[in-house]
Amino acid sequence: MRVRTTARGGTAVWLVVLVLVLVQAAAFLAVWRVAVHTELGQWLDTVALTGNRIGQDRIDGPVDRILNAMSVVSLVAATAVIGFIALIRGRVALAVTATLLIVGANATTQALKYGLARPDFGIDPERIYAGNSLPSGHTTVAASVAVALVLVLPPTMRVAGAFLGAGYAAAAGVATLSAGWHRPSDAVAAYLVVGVWAALGGLLLLVTQREQAQVDSADAHRVATAVLGIGGALAVVACVLALTWLAGLPRVAPAELSRRPLFVGYAGSAAGIAGTMGMVMALVLISVHRLVPRIKG
């Protein structure tokens, strides 16, 4: 086992975390621009949302249970538990950072949802009066809690927490699509908001890192990170292929499409939602051992 003292102000670590902020922010802007401000993006989103009717009767129960479990009370309770875990580990700065991550991500989502405009291209007249729905609030709740939990867990429990958290957050994002509450881009944007806040939290953790902090190479969890990252990337590629195939079809009203393109749009978008969460969690898992290292003694 190789253990070394951290260079708290190490240029490489600072640059990597800063790049994570910029890359995920740029990805958010790209998703927002394409999905909301182009006719093709709105059409693809609406096709996927219309496809949720396929098999909906069989999944209504689980979807309702997942979404109904998320409320202001449950978010406050989860935040308190996460802060408590950090405090009993003697990590005050970590408790503050995890709390700021959850509060900041959810506040940002609500500000964006009500602050961003959605042009009307006449593609989804049933929901035009609902206005902008990007990012998804429910998805942000699930993803922010999942990421914050991974930050505060001890190294021996991080892998389990990462897989369970990513699975839960991905299920929540897909559930908002299955229930007809949100378009796929809303869930993807929510994960990216959480990813940006996680990276900003990483910068704060670097600032407050103790002099006794030590990086242990065994805490890097490279295999788990690769599984999440590569699996997520493959799912996103599958989503891109599905949407590319849809984009080549005649641009008719989504309700007039046959079962096959609706299923491709729905399943492909669900893969993109799950894949994005997997990649965001992989970025957290690959950096957390440097941001929250062991403490000597």
Notes on the protein architecture:
- With 297 residues, the chain is mainly alpha-helical.
- The protein has one domain.
- Helix content is 72%, strand content 3%.
- A 3-stranded antiparallel sheet has the order 1-2-3, with no helix packed on it.
- Residues 94-202 form the Phosphatidic acid phosphatase type 2/haloperoxidase domain.
- It holds the Pfam family PAP2.
- InterPro entries: PAP2/HPO (IPR000326), PAP2/HPO_sf (IPR036938).
- This is Phosphatase PAP2 family protein.
- Keywords: Membrane, Transmembrane, Transmembrane helix.
Number of domains: 1
Shape category = elongated
Mean pLDDT over the full residue set: 90
Strand arrangement across the biggest beta sheet: 1-2-3
Distance between the termini: 17 Å
Low-confidence sequence ranges: 1-5
Find the count of extended strands (DSSP E, 2+ residues): 3
**Beta-strand percentage range:** under 5%
Number of helices: 10
**Which structural category fits the helices and strands?**
mainly alpha
* Helicity range: over 70%
Largest beta-sheet details: 3 strands, antiparallel
Question: Topology as H/E string?
Answer: EHHHHHHHHEHHE
The radius of gyration computed from the alpha-carbon positions, rounded to a whole number of angstroms, is 20 Å
List keywords for this structure.
297 residues; mainly alpha; 3-stranded antiparallel β-sheet; 3 strands; elongated
